[in-house]
Amino acid sequence: MTQPQSSNSLLVWLAALVGLGAFLCLGGLFAWGVYKGFTRTTEEAATTASSATSSTKVKLPSAQRHVPHHALSILEGCSDDDVRTIASGIDGAIDVGAPLYNAGNFAGCYHLYEGTAADVERKLGGSCAGPVQALEAGRTRAASLTTASAQAWAMRDTFDGLLDVIARSRKGE
Questions:
Q1: Could you report the per-residue pLDDT of 11-49, keeping only the tens digit for each?
Q2: How far is CA 12 from CA 4, 6, 25, 40, 50, in A?
Q3: I need a surface site. Which of 26, 142, 152, 172 has the fewest CB within 10 A?
Q4: Within its chain, how far is the Cα of 13 from the centroid?
Q5: 133-171 b/e (C-beta count within 10 Å ≥ 16 → b)
Q6: pLDDT at 105 over 90
Q7: CA angle, 108 as apex, 104 and 114 as ends, to 5°?
Q8: Average per-residue pLDDT in the chain?
Q9: Residues 68, 157: contact at Cβ < 8 Å?
Q10: How far apart are CA 141 and CA 152, in angstroms?
Q11: pLDDT above 90 covers what percent of the chain?
């Protein structure tokens, strides 16, 4: 005896829905497992990184500072936007680069600082020549040094010289 055609279709649809439901449940369980694994791995990495930076002290080389003292006239021709570009670019680089340096990644710090200097140079208006020249001189000096630590400090000195003249200009000195 055969079942009517409509009940066969109904059984096929029911089986398909049950299969789809099982597939979705298994997919959901798989996705949840991946999420939990990712979360656990991320938490372990953060814990490892924080314990490594807090428990392991990197021997930092001594640094000879050569921070340039610029005349206020270095900012002549720079718009307020140019000055903000300089300050925000440098501040952002120091916020990231100083922890890199302190963790012993001297080359990473130097390359970040050097790249930031080049980027700020490109963003400044043509009439803001003084800071562009100061950044170029800093990059040239840093590139001539033999260690990544010294290169990073040369760039930091360049940055600190520009931040100093910006601060003095805001005070009206």
A1: 776 777 777 776 665 665 555 554 555 455 445 545 544
A2: 13, 10, 20, 42, 56
A3: 172
A4: 53
A5: ebbeebbebbeeeeebbbbbbbbbbbbbbbbebbeebee
A6: yes
A7: 130
A8: 83
A9: yes
A10: 11
A11: 61
Tokens linked to 144: 């001539």
Instruction: Kindly report the backbone phi and psi dihedral angles of residue 22, in degrees, each rounded to the nearest multiple of 5, phi listed first.
Output: -65, -40
H/E segment holding residue 40: helix 5-55
Token pair belonging to 96: 């990231």
Q: Which residue is listed with tokens 């049950």?
A: 18
First to last CA, the chain: 104
Query: Contacts from 65-70 at CB under 8 Å and sequence distance 24+?
Result: 65/153, 65/157, 66/154, 66/157, 67/157, 67/160, 67/161, 67/164, 68/134, 68/157, 68/158, 68/161, 69/161, 69/164, 70/130, 70/134, 70/161, 70/162, 70/164, 70/165
Tokens 């490109």 map to which residue? 122
Quickly tell me which residue has 């910006």 as its tokens.
166
- Let me know how many helices (H) and strands (E) the chain has, helices first: 5, 0
Q: Round to whole Å and give the CA distance between 68 and 57.
A: 30
Helix pair angle (129-143, 106-123), 10° resolution: 150
The residue among 142, 96, 100 whose CA lies nearest residue 118 is 142
